[in-house]
Write a structure and sequence with these properties.
This protein is mostly helical. It has one domain. It is built from 3 helices and no strands. The protein starts with a helix and ends with a helix.
């Protein structure tokens, strides 16, 4: 399955869609945790 077919979503199974959704959710949560953990570093950089 190519990237274009994956992004169109027509041929995704429910399991594949769930995996993509939860992977994105984990990515967002990890990014948020990193931003909170490193906000002092970002604050001093400004």
């Amino acid at each position: 399955m190519g990237l274009t077919e994956l992004l169109e979503g027509e041929s995704l199974t429910g399991r594949q869609a769930a995996i993509i959704f939860f992977t994105f959710l984990v990515l967002v949560i990890v990014a948020g945790i990193l931003l909170v953990a490193l906000r002092d570093v970002f604050w001093f950089a400004v």
